[in-house]
Amino acid sequence: MQIQKFILGSIQTNSYLVYNKKEAILIDCGGHEDVILKYLADNELKLKYILLTHGHFDHICINKLKEKTGAKVGMNNKDIVMPVNILAGRIKPIKTDFDLKEKKDIGLGLIRLKIFETPGHSPGSCSIYIQSKHALFSGDTLFKNAIGRTDIPGGNYDRLMKSIKEKLLVLPNETKIYPGHGPDTTISQEKQRFSEKFF
Fold first, then answer.
1. pLDDT in tens, 175-195
2. What is the pTM of this model?
3. Which residues contact 192 (CB under 8 A, 6 or more apart)?
4. 2-198 maps to which CATH number?
């Protein structure tokens, strides 16, 4: 399994292409879809799914990708209509194919991606976990030395902290965290930071 990171769009969103042999899954897209399309073509990859960790405008720039590849799009239904997108003037709708729900498994060959609902940054925020590879895609729930914003419509600090404590920090220490913005981190590093608060 390979993970290719792209930093895309005006807010430098981390977008991740996870692929195994010739099948790929894209997690979030901040813009510049042609960059992803070129990488897929250059590496002869078939994009099977686009998984969106949440519905904020800087993560859902996928209409061209869906049209060109036919990939199925999954996002939690609670984030289908996001007030913050309207406030930001980004109201172009996206079409999803399925609801990204708790404990749903997505297949990429023999690789299984497990979905955790981790609300707080938005009502439908999800994190995506690949247990066999000790990899967690946390969207905007958890960053290196930081947590997602909760001061925007749909945000809730208490729910976010509950998500982090009960869903993410219980994962193995060696789990690598691939966040929606900024550098990677690990569960071990973030547990140390939260040790006084939670442990």
1. 999 999 999 999 999 999 887
2. 0.94
3. none
4. 3.60.15.10
